[in-house]
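Q: What would this complex look like in 3D?
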Amino acid sequence: MNTKPIIMNYKKHFLSSVALLVFGILFYGSTPQKNATNVMAPAVQRIPAKFDFIPPSRSKMASTDITIAVVKPMYVDKNAEYFVPPFNEMATSMGNDFEELLTAKGFTVRGPFGSRDEMTFNDKNSSSFILEISIDLQPHYNREKTTFSHAPSFSDLLINKNAPTTYSYKINGEVTFGGYLVINARSSRYGELIWKKNIALQPSSFNYVGSFTWDGIPNMDEELNRDNQVYNTVSKELEKYYLKALNLAWQQIDPEEMKTVAEQGKKADKKN
Amino acid sequence: MSFMKPFFLILVPLILGTCIYAIARPESTIVLSGRGMTKAFKLPSWVIYNLPDGLWLFSLLNCLYLIWHRNSSRTKLIWIMSAFLLAVLTEVFQKYHIITGTFDYVDILAYCLALIISSVCNKF
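A: Here is my prediction, written as structure tokens for the whole assembly.
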């Protein structure tokens, strides 16, 4: 019996198996970082923050016979992120909602004014006192970066053989908001402080994950401006903070107490 | 069989696929790591991500045709189709996350083209 063809066949099967194994390793080794040609990461849409407070009840309009001049809420600190959305949007909305809150309590409202200096003599004369609102958010950011290194490309090396490795970063972190809503009442003519209320806000923390890849380490305001995912996360938490703050302010502002404040304001202005 | 046919049908696609991989893919791929050359060549993404796989399968199929060229069609067909189905199955496994990687239907298209072209080349 001629065994040569049988042996040849076994050799061929063996060679074919080896070829399959080698190519299999080649295929498998090529898989991890492949990007499918038609898959695109969906862009994160920015969801505009909605700061809106609806008073739980409404008294008869101007029922208290007190006119309050409201100065627009401002942040106590001058953090860079306070000047970008959603923080600046929150401050603007708070001024409008405070006007609505006070009107619902039965006060007549003037303003909101940018500052006490913006008020005319007539505005000051017509007001029982001035209400200034300060937002002392006391934010705490615990941010971490993930670093990606990029070796110089072949073309970079052709131009400069000492071309450096570049780095990019992704940021994630934990943010805590807390602090106080500070409400000051000042006499309308001379601005004497006649009443103060610090409304403590319970600290709340949340995590965020940035979707942007940065060339350098960004500040919080840069993240809020350019990374929609970060904006959406922070604005959602700020909306909750806003409602809690205004609900507490609603509870704390009592028309009867404000009548006393108005009388104190008149006395303070007379003294001066 | 002359040397030219195995050279052009097996070695050249294998080397070409590997070169495209080495030059154009991100450096973190397992096959070749080292100094990245990702930005050097502005190639379409199908050339970077799908052509190497198609070339490798083409090379493998031609290798199997070479091994089995004197044998019956049945044995040859079994090996050829096994190699092709193995390649397609890796894509299917990636789709269902059984193995690492990203499912891409263009890869399956590349495999089909590799099968057709290698079949045509080995008829002549």
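A: To summarize the key features: Chain B touches chain A through 48 residues (CB under 8 Å). The first helix of chain B runs from residue 4 to 24.
Q: Very helpful, thank you.
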